[in-house]
Amino acid sequence: MRIAWNDEETREGFRFSSQEAASSFGDDRLLIEKFIDNPRHIEIQVLADKHGNALWLNERECSIQRRNQKVVEEAPSTFLDPETRRAMGEQAVALARAVQYSSAGTVEFLVDTQKNFYFLEMNTRLQVEHPITECITGLDLVQQMIRVAKGYALQHTQADIPINGWAIESRVYAEDPYKSFGLPSIGRLSQYQEPSNLTGVRVDSGIQEGSDISIYYDPMISKLVSYGSTRAEALERMEAALDCYVIRGVTHNIPLLREILVHPRFVSGDISTKFLPEVYPEGFKGHQLSDSEREELLATAASLFVATRLRSQRFLGNLRVSSAPQEQQKWELSVELEKGSHTVTVSRKGSTYTVQLDGKSVDVSSDWNLASAVLPVTVNGTQRTVQCLSRNAGGELNLQYLGTVYKVRVLSKLAASLSRHMPEKVPEDSSSILRSPMPGSVVAVSVKPGDTVAEGQEICVIEAMKMQNSMTAARAAKVKSVHCKPGETVGEGDLLVELE
Hints:
The chain is an alpha+beta fold. The chain is 23% helix and 36% strand. Pfam families: Biotin_carb_C (PF02785), Biotin_lipoyl (PF00364), CPSase_L_D2 (PF02786), PCC_BT (PF18140).
């Protein structure tokens, strides 16, 4: 699905959309539809049997999208009033009856700012987001589909269908959210732990630890659902679930999901299908730390560093060297974050570390179970959930904090003074080369060595997970060499073309 604003975009959109349709569905025919600017994407769940009975099971708000694919859904919608909900539901049921539909299905609409709604399509199947409808209605849609298929009449009438509470679904993808809000990532799940132990949280997945995410299928890892008596409670539970979700081995979109859920526009319900490009016009950059959050992160990193040091000195609860002097109680450290360096002093009292940082005192306490993938900490009385993705002997820590992974470097005072003499790695000049931004297969190569290309000119097309992406030249130049050909599989970062 593509939007065309002019003749050039129409030609390009037709080419890519027809190629994607032929590749994914074996049918390259296209529909041309009116584009509703700044709409909401709201769908009605229907359920019909073979005896002429049909129900609408309320709506789902699916407006948070990237590349016209849903990312976050909720039920009910913050936008609909009872009259609009009833009108949309009755039209959806009328459509199902008109085609003598039986089973569960979804009628999708676009709704403008005046609550005028326009039919988009009907999906004659179970939707990815069906769990949130189950949460607010209490109906098991899969069970209902099986009963209908067997020939039984529906057990409920329209008056029996409630809206109890609020449910939110986050689609957890193996994607890099820092690239076009989510380009596919592949790899093996080296560690995987779902937050299904939390109250009001449901996880529907088809993978497990050790599973491979490949380029041949949709990159969805799971459907993460939270349910509460109110929308605020459902949002709070989703936030906790995302913080406790452990995914290692592939890049995932949890940083983006968490930022969406806590954004003031989303919390207030002011959303549309343009939410992501409007909120992040320069692309998603991760969570932007406030001053207090930065202090929390620095203090947590320093405390984690000290806790790791102390653990390494012990074996079966005893000091490794019996004649060692009394255990150290105070440390002077250097903590580096985002090119800023901070000198901190850490002192310990039991399981609590007091960190003196930029003239302020921060208390960090935890059970310090460093073998756990999820580390609950209390920072100056505030509960946080931190994940340490990696740490090395050079003092580098990758910490997932507030959903975003931050690279923090913690060194002793002596090591920090010596590190200033280490040469820095010079970044690669990307203007003369084109690398694949994601794993996929090469559909077409539009240039050959010796060709002259203009800035923005298409060089090749990479297809991954049902989406074709045009790779273009960063500047006007002559093609030096081509390192790919149609039909080849490429990985993220693979060299495609060199320019002179």
